[in-house]
């Protein structure tokens, strides 16, 4: 069998985090009742006129700068004509001839090493509505809430050769955009969507094979499976002497197979022409510099700084910076308590454990840095032990309670009366002669049992280190 190489390019659609739509003042909030976030503009009523949302341009510029693109100083919008029920005007306002960003790249790293993935362009456009298929009534309904939500489409060069490279590229893009605050990039809510253009060719061949485009990909796992499935399908066709047809295919992740949707359109099929209702977008040097000056510290820079400033492992740094929300929480907590190792430990161990148990993402963390810092302070001041702290943290994680008030209210503070603690330890020694004998016979583990008995008698409200010290002294 011949050796084949996969050639992959991506079209990534990202819904921008503006409060209003790209050409009208309707809300972009996710999850509203059908057709409640609409107006004459985003439902394509005759005579309505679009007005460009300035924030959309600034988000597009910010993403372009962060992905090393050239920013187009004089840009225009174009009409992309097609007829579909979720497209109320029967055209989409997009950018074909003068997209806002061009000629960029992002650097990725996989097990195969480092690689630069080219970005052909980034353009601004409006989203379409959403079709809801009602199987009971055997009909389709249209919700126009999403119609007019601002998008950027990031078009890569066909530089990727494996599913690993694709996932690394998407994760890098997602983190860049999240750090910029331009989008939450939630694949499950459709605010980040990827279409995969894929072809295969013999290893060493210069000419690309015939590509297909796969849609309906709403998770990184689905994208990886779709790439492997389509690669196998195309190789099988070529091996059988059949032609690969250029078409758009729909990936069914349950069946792990793609189905033909329609023949792949070319630009001329959409009859693009300049949008007559919008003026050109002129980006001045001052405006560009204003956006550039607001660019935040991105993940790569943040990781390098953490290595310089905090004495924590590289693995922790990778996890903490893998979510902007987690990184912000880490830094804000340190600013309050000044204990980076302690903060890292609470986020890396207990927080990650609870996130996994509850099947949540780091972005779902709702507790405040003030309350995590206060919990760390209670431990440092000897007011609670670590066992109690873990119990209190679970409540903080779930309800963001004030740990100081909670510990006082529930009576969880450690007993500070050394005389009372000594009395309990003496009782434990008297009641467990066998353990005392084992300890004196050289079985040092016996002290662990005695510590446990003391903690039990104190209802967990004692410092294990202090108990250890007292036991060693009295034994």
From TrEMBL:
Reactions the enzyme catalyzes: L-glutamyl-tRNA(Gln) + L-glutamine + ATP + H2O = L-glutaminyl-tRNA(Gln) + L-glutamate + ADP + phosphate + H(+); L-aspartyl-tRNA(Asn) + L-glutamine + ATP + H2O = L-asparaginyl-tRNA(Asn) + L-glutamate + ADP + phosphate + 2 H(+)
Annotated keywords: ATP-binding, Ligase, Nucleotide-binding, Protein biosynthesis
Entry's transmembrane regions: none
EC number per UniProt: 6.3.5.-
UniProt keyword Translocase, yes or no: no
Domain Asn/Gln amidotransferase intervals: 328-475
One GO BP annotation of this record: glutaminyl-tRNAGln biosynthesis via transamidation
Enzyme class: ligase
Top-level division of the source organism's lineage: Bacteria
UniProt cross-references to SMART domains, sorted A to Z: GatB_Yqey
InterPro entries: Asn/Gln-tRNA_amidoTrfase_suB/E, Asn/Gln-tRNA_Trfase_suB/E_cat, Asn/Gln_amidotransferase, Asn/Gln_tRNA_amidoTrase-B-like, GatB, GatB_C_1, GatB_Yqey_C_2, Gln-tRNA_amidoTrfase_suB_CS
Gene Ontology MF, one: ATP binding
Assembly behavior: Heterotrimer of A, B and C subunits.
Record-stated family: Belongs to the GatB/GatE family. GatB subfamily.
Protein purpose: Allows the formation of correctly charged Asn-tRNA(Asn) or Gln-tRNA(Gln) through the transamidation of misacylated Asp-tRNA(Asn) or Glu-tRNA(Gln) in organisms which lack either or both of asparaginyl-tRNA or glutaminyl-tRNA synthetases. The reaction takes place in the presence of glutamine and ATP through an activated phospho-Asp-tRNA(Asn) or phospho-Glu-tRNA(Gln).
Protein known as: Aspartyl/glutamyl-tRNA(Asn/Gln) amidotransferase subunit B
Species, as recorded: Hominifimenecus microfluidus
Gene name in the database record: gatB
